[in-house]
Amino acid sequence: MAVVSLRKVEKTYPNGFKAVHGVDLEVRDGEFMVFVGPSGCAKSTLLRMVAGLESISGGELRIGDRAVNDLPPKQRGIAMVFQNYALYPHMTVYDNLGFGLRLAKTPKAELDQRVRHAAKLLEMEHLLERYPKQLSGGQAQRVAVGRAIVKKPEVFLFDEPLSNLDAKLRAAMRVRLTELHRALRDAGQPATTIYVTHDQVEAMTMGERICVLKAGVIQQVDTPTALYERPANAFVGGFIGSPEMNLVGAELFGHRLRLGHLGEQLLPLPAARADAMALRDGAVQFGLRPEHIGVAPSGRSGELAVPALLRFTEHMGAEIYVHAEVGGLPFSARVPAESGQALTTLARGSAITLQFQMDHAHLFAADEAGASLRR
Fold this sequence. Notes:
The protein is α+β, with helices and mostly antiparallel strands.
């Protein structure tokens, strides 16, 4: 079993700075878990603690049935893929793949079998005699992944491995790594994976579950769908999703909301959803994703017409992002190109009407710690 368990894990540096605050997390056997969050949230620190490259100040870390707090990296049954590939420039791809096995005095026949198996999995058999300087960025990254595969570790650790690639290659490598993980798991090879990224698109497309971190504290651990539809707090709601969720301050009055300077116009909340939270009247945070805002007339039922002032538009091909102000507060809508085309010719400050789908609304406590309305 390659379960990775973190129990009250902490990291405090000698200068007193506490980077990780009592993390409790279990990565299931064979699972693809993604750590995601903004820069400085301690996601890489947490990964390096699992790898044994950072010491643990408190708590317990277990891989399988072993506590590994004090074990060196080579005894933890892990393999790590770094952002910068870390290939040996004077070695061929074949020798780079087999270097760790050679150090472990693996029999030559077994070494050759493992190296060629990894090369086949990654479709790079034709690259085995090349040197790193002869490889593209994507090919070099595949070699780094292959070097991890040949070790047959219990746990794979990836530290932002795609951040140096261009957008098109990054998208292709996301698919390749996801398929590789499934292939290894289906073949019965241990494939528990922890993947660190700051890119929430990578997290949403690759992770079976995602751990969202902020300032060394776990905000929510869940499937991509659950994180998107039922964020635990305003931070998760705003971080997950592209374009990001509209989050603005509002005042709550029972089942109604007032936004900014809308005067006497109050936005009605679906009663069933409003009752699901025990928020008191007063300051709250109101959230609505851009795809749940239309431009009148949108033709969708159950929408609330809200007056707005146009700021600017972004033409994205099949969609148009409409940026506007509602009661002095910024809102973004994502609409089909045919619906928003007419807005692209309007001047800044033109009066328009947005259509809010209030049954998709999220409501959070003003301090960001509150649960979502759509929980």
